[in-house]
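Key idea: predict the complex, not the pieces.
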Amino acid sequence: MLSKFILSGITAFLFLSGATSDPITLPVPAGWPAPQYDNPRNPLTESGIALGRRLFYEPLLSRDSTVSCSNCHLSFTAFTHVDHALSHGINDRIGTRNSPALMNLAWSRSFMWDGAVNHLDMQALAPISSPVEMDFNIQGVTERLKASEDYRSMFEKAFGSGEITGERILKALAQFELTLVSANSRYDRIKAGKDTFTAQEKNGYELFQKHCNSCHTEPLFTNYQFENNGLKPDTILNDRGRAGISGNPADDLKFKVPTLRNIEISHPYMHDGRFKRLKEVLNHYTDGIEDSPTLSPLLKDKIQLGSREKTDLTAFLLTLTDRDFLFNPDFRPPAPK
Amino acid sequence: MPRNERVLILPTMNYLFSLLFCMTACLLPAQGARIHAHASCRGRIVVTGDTLPLGIVLQTARFYLSDFIFYRQGQEVLRENNSYHLVDLEFPESGEWAIHTSGFDEISFLLGTDSLTNVSGAYGGDLDPVKGMYWTWNSGYINVKLEGFSPQSRGRNGEFALHLGGYMPPFQTDYRVQSGVTSSGHIHIELDVCPMFEQTDWNSHFNVMSPSAEAARLTELLGRSIRVYAE
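Result:
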């Protein structure tokens, strides 16, 4: 099942955007839904992706040229800020949230823990402008890149002219991020009939389907909804999640359900990085659920899991680790020019 | 050549007349009309830096006009392509553009940007985020940005910043203007900012920075104060 990112009008859009290299279609893994990313004005091209990758690793995007996207999103840890509960940016200022792992972004309907950003193209504006992240602005980034001959030629390759605009910077970053597809874990190979679960993993998988799958839904391991999974609110950060964006009290303490792919690697866990280990996460689901008016009905009844069962469930979660993704050379910093 | 009264410091009346003649004759596309969008207060044109009758000093005043549709006798005759115009009172020429039809008797457009534009990713031109009209912590365009000082504002040194936007219900802030107009060639779109400033809550809403009921209320006040007329 190889459907396409760019469903129609490729030639028309190429004509309009003046892109010089051939459009690329990322394959949709078997059994996956159609991607959500829907900007026909941004067809993927090899040179667009290469430019996006360069920008992702570019410290010039921060005010004092010290922080790039990769500071908080490292390729070999599924693009999360591993071991940092709350990500830190420029001058080591600490943010209020844990950096999420970046993968399968083409399937996301919204971005950030509270869904504040509605389109992948626009996401990069947030870290570039945030005083605790890169503390800069897209106007300044544009001016800096214009001064570089190297960038002018990369923009020309990617977009047909050397003009450097905010639109193009955002589109190129999105192109690179769209290529971060993780779909080759052991779980995937088992589903494709190329491998088999151990008895322990199989038992864990059954427990997962019973207790977790309605939110962390296969095959992407998220239903992309906002849910309250019973975390006790942190009184200092006092993060109300989705309600801060929607203004709707019914969204209080709801956060976007994160994918569990590569979960072994992307610790610490939860929007504020409060748990270091999967064991703590499972203990939360069995014994730590805090009742509140917006708690998901799925978690109102206590989840019963013995320690054997927790071990089995963990064994299943580890089958979601995708080494091809983590060690993909195309995702690492580009060779210096 | 922008039509800006302030640059007409002219030596002779002759020159003035030929210039005026040129503005009607030279700038009009064949078979077309010209839009002149600007802001006013109580009938007086305002630009950035002006002190308004209410004592308000305007430092920044920018707003989007978009989705222009022209009608004749109820039938659509033209829908403008790529119809996004960021009018910035610091650059009066930003409110001036040509349209390639003249046979219309009604015009319709948005103050602001429509919700589809707000959810469709990166755009260039007047919609490029480098224009500073896109929120960064939350998605969506700032449809109207008004900043400056007001003697009534409780903000620091009387500062105020009204960033009006929002594309999701219940706080949608685009406002559709529909108006009959004789197509004489020069169509003026005049946004009177003062009715809104007269009803601004200077005690608690001198800073509006997110989609909210207040943003929607102020945008509606602005939208209702738009007058469309032919020269």
